[in-house]
Batch of 3 targets.
Target 1
Amino acid sequence: MAKQFKPETLCVQAGWSPKKGEPRVLPIYQSTTFKYDTSEQMARLFDLEDNGYFYTRLQNPTNDAVAAKIAALEGGVGAMLTSSGQAANFYAVFNICQAGDHFVCSSAIYGGTFNLFNVTMKKLGIDVTFVNPDDSEEEIAKAFRPNTKALFGETISNPALEVLDIEKFARIAHSHGVPLIVDNTFPTPINCRPFEWGADIVVHSTTKYMDGHATSVGGAIVDSGNFDWDAHAEKFPGLCTPDESYHGLTYTKAFGKMAYITKATAQLMRDLGSIQSPMNAFLLNLGLETLHLRMPQHCKNAQRVAEYLQKNDKVAWVNYCGLPGNKYYELAQKYMPNGSCGVISFGLKGGREVAIRFMDHLKLAAIVTHVADARTCVLHPASHTHRQLTDEQLIEAGVRPDLIRFSVGIENAEDIIADIEQALNA
């Protein structure tokens, strides 16, 4: 399906193809388990010799249909849904890293991902080095070690909104024989498809624009099928040597281009179990059906809000890659010519205290920890999500103490701007 249809059609049609007399709308398979007629049929499923369903922790028809839709949108060979974006990030790295391994990561990433990589995964014996994504290829290459297994970055970072030079990162990763993993949550595949620029694995927090309505926490991992694991077999024994927990099956030999995503399902989901519920997958699918309609509206509104803020004399600075003159404008035009996302960051003259007073006076925009859904919402990281950090640590994490993260919804842009104006005046 991915070959002949454009993204708008895939949003609506991909993943679920009912046969005669089957439900037109993807059903919720709200069952933990699935029946078979003979012991032999079940045995073949457990040996990965047959495809099919036996337990929802591993696979479920609702989840698989939605994963297939996301894979089609990204142009990948396969995908797996997870219970959250954090679970997707963890599985994506842990699928190819084990104790004693190392990976390299852009420093411009979401704070929750930074903690996962910098604190929790270190407890598992997996080390990480953070690099400034704007540094030269030579500078970033210095972070690589013989035991480095991956390079990780975010297409548009949350909340600093830095744009990743995907081609540059892909060149660095591939010259060291490792895959590039890209978190594509903010642009979504409607505005950017990292596989087309050399990325190998894409992850999403589907909680954001894909769900689009703030109803369901979820994540996804998509495999491009392009990385040649066997060419670097000594680096990736988990994929290229026999797995004793499956009678010595070797993933690259048994599953070819699907090796990475099959291992993630058969091994990590089997053992760690961060499955997305079929109900949440059903709601996510409803969100995906309108993703191609919502993203242009988010971007159009955000552009207007950013232009308004840029002209307002109470505003100290605005960061939105759609503004000509923005540090990332050229990169955004290259990777996301149709628009980036609906999230803007800005600071007010008077700093942190004024930012808090401004937010308290907003009426249409709500103060929430969430970002990237249909409703306009706002957050002050220094006093909310990053409140445990000092001002020095905030700046090091790319979050200025006065930074306001403003997620522009799909309401009328004039109403959103009027709300900002009355709060600034108050």
Target 2
Amino acid sequence: MNHMNTHEIEALANRLLGGEISAAEFARQVQMPSIADIGEAQLDLDRARRCGFPEVVFSQGKTTAVMERIFRTLLESGEEVLATRMSAEQAAELLPKFPTGVYNPIGRTFRIPRPADRAGTDDLRSVRPGRVTVVTAGTSDLPVAEEARETALWTGAEVRMVQDVGVAGPHRLRANLHHLQSADAVVVVAGMEGALPSVVGGYVDCPVIGVPTSVGYGASFGGVAALLSMLNSCAANVTVVNIDAGFKGGYIAGLIARNASQKRDRP
């Protein structure tokens, strides 16, 4: 099964007609399989077509040699790379090999933009960007929030960050409502008692994705208290992902924002 979408095949055909590539190269790229076997991993190269965005790399437990092969395969397929939970040591080894890569040491993410000759060929990302706002209850929640922010940026969304507006000082949230009320989706990252998503949900008309964090004292049970609080939210537009799952929150927000943007762009 071919992993290329119609827009990409047309773009490749135009390069063939323009003499930029040979007929053999055209045939090779069109017939590329949807699964790349690199030994330690079976890369799903068809995921962007099926699910909207390409496969994401979970760095924890992987060697840099394996990640290098994964990254090169994704880039050769014209995809932008996102890796999560990457250590500073892993990033230090990979950055010289991928000089266009960007490492976020707080969010522990690593992004590599798609090759210049493939930029703009994905019709799923050619519309105007959707809007995502990431909100943190406290500064201790920032690592999870940065993972969410980097993920949402990778999906092509326009992302705003609103920091340190937890329920202990509710006036801080009210001062930033204009950033939330213009969003297609809001990601709320909170530890302790996890009350902030419910409060945010009462102010906005878009989905609110609660991300509980493991921040808190003993009775927070490593984020379980915040998770249960968010699951029991009476705000009907609040949904919840796993503890410290900034990637999942940012990914879902990016999907929502992309779909909302596509709907706005329809005649």
Target 3
Amino acid sequence: MEFGLGEEQEMIVSTVRSFVENEIYPHEAEIERTGHVPLELGDEIRNKVIDLGFYACNFPEEVGGAGLSHVDFTLVERELGRGSMALTHFFGRPQKILMACTGEQRERYLLPAVRGERMDALAMTEPDAGSDIRSMKCTAVREGGDWIVNGSKHFISGAEHADFFIVFVATGVDETPKGAKKRITGFLVDRGHPGFEVRDGYNSVSHRGYKNCILTFDDCRLPGNQVLGEVDDGFAVMNEWLYATRLTVAASSVGRARRCFDYAVNYAAERKQFGQQIAKFQGVSFQIADMITEIDAADWLTLAGAWRLDRGLPANREIASAKLYASEMLARVTDATLQVFGGMGLMDDFPIERFWRDARVERIWDGTSEIQRHIISRELFRPLGA
């Protein structure tokens, strides 16, 4: 078993890390202060990524992407995790679910998204439907060849910059022995479509500048050709293209933890108390040892999940484990780093307090820690009939 990275993979890591350090880091303090990314800055980052050849690198070459493997793309996400999410958003990783586009949808949505001409946003979550997708209340009712959509979505990331949205809504109900079960369908919805509105969302302490928005549908009429995939088959579309997004959270958590760790090591080596560097005290040095051990474990767990995907092996449990462990590891590492810095860790002179705040959401989105534990335990017990 080969644990080292190949030459091309080392190049990917070096290129993306250099981009983040040179094009993302310099703007982070201002974005943190204002909570807003100017459109011209976002466009500048996007254009530089396109010139670099990394835009939509998660898409296959036949549609214009870089065709990176799951492991290679996980390395990209790990390095992007070092930077402000509000800014790395413009590095451009459209939703892979757009590969479900067919016919005219490819020319209108898929290919422009891959070329960086149009930006997308994914909309599933509702006020009463987070982890429980089937409890969504946003509905679409067929009327002739069209669909009439009513309801709302919230916590929609990247919506303020999106040109179109991938929206999943309930399109019917089946009665089963276990009760009513909603059928879900995906739709492609353009910004500005009549009956559809994008509104500002909530103020979050995590990832300032990476805003969430609220989407509302008021008798929004969508033609039948806006359906993504098959009618009532939204779960199949999600399961084919979306479940690996948990690897993105795991990988970015590892990248952010490594950046945070670098601060902790350097500060411990420089800061003196009682006549010597605080790194010489076991109370600090042992924390540092625990941090790097956990970071490395999360890194390999994440890459192992991506490796299984590349080989067509079952990876649901492994990906859930990576997301669970990496996101909770990040919380421990940021908290320990703040402790090493002491009172200065809470001051905005350093980005430590930002890392600490940003870490909290990773255990919630893309499936809470509790959901990941459910997935893991289910995968273990189902073969045993339990």
